[in-house]
Amino acid sequence: MSEVLSVIVPVYNGEKTLRRCVESLRTQTYPNLEILVIDDGSTDGTPAICDEYETIPEIRVIHQENRGLAATRNRGILEAKGDYIGFCDADDFVHPAMFAELYRILKEAKAEISVCGYVRAPEGAGELAAPEEMETYRVYPAKKALEKLLKGEEPLKSYAWNKLYKKELFRKIRYPEGKNFEDQFVTWRLFGKAEKIAAMDWKGYYYVDNPESITNRKWNPKELDYLEAWEEILRFFKGKNEGFARLAADQLVSAAIYTESRMKKAGITDRQAKEKIRRYIAENAEGYARSQIAAATPKRKAYAVLMGLTWRMTGEKR
Length: 318
Hints:
By secondary structure, this protein is α/β, with parallel strands linked by helices. It is built from 10 helices and 9 strands. Strands 1, 2, 3, 4, 5, 6, 7, 8 and 9 form a 9-stranded mixed sheet that branches.
């Protein structure tokens, strides 16, 4: 009998999209899938939709009080019966072969994590694109895969949902509760615990643009969590791997400049947040002008250099 793959579906007020997500998982070609649908205290029709699936053998439904996405994922990890874990957000859906392909390349490569590409789909999308021809995959030692992740190279980004993981990687790792961008705090740690990562560009995950997602809403202070995640990565590698530390610093500067521009467009005058963002930029500006990451555009490089000079000229401690 094939090994069990546990796919965790966190859902909060997902009555419009949950069925599409679950049905895409039910039609997976992999024969032994456990689908964990975890209702995070929804206040719309989601709980009733979840209960419709309770009689289906491969689906387990769990209701809990609202605790947020990170806590819901953590609950799924705790409850999962499989030796492998995947995630699918309730407003997204997957290609019928996604988990079969992720499992195949993981096993063939004797890796601990496998990764596929993804498609950005418009809100309301309900049909899968025509299946693409399966591609060869690449196998990376964990250190090389981590370098690519820190550079932000596709498909090796920090998203939780386009991957299959050996469950044992999560033994001492959990998503930070109360944080947004929770996968940014965790995926690099999982890569660091692995020995090999297998990756293919074949697009098996359908990421649906949600107008209510944090990246599409007006700016709010929780966006600083993303900067905090990069600061944590920078602190970890400082003194251990200066190349990785530089990549993390470059990503932190780029993200800080982007966040500051979002605040400006939204007319936000949060002085404390603005000061924190500018400190991130100024303290890491040295070396950013030579950055090779895609997010370090010429305009951002010029701004970071100016910010660093201004910071030093005004006597601020670096």
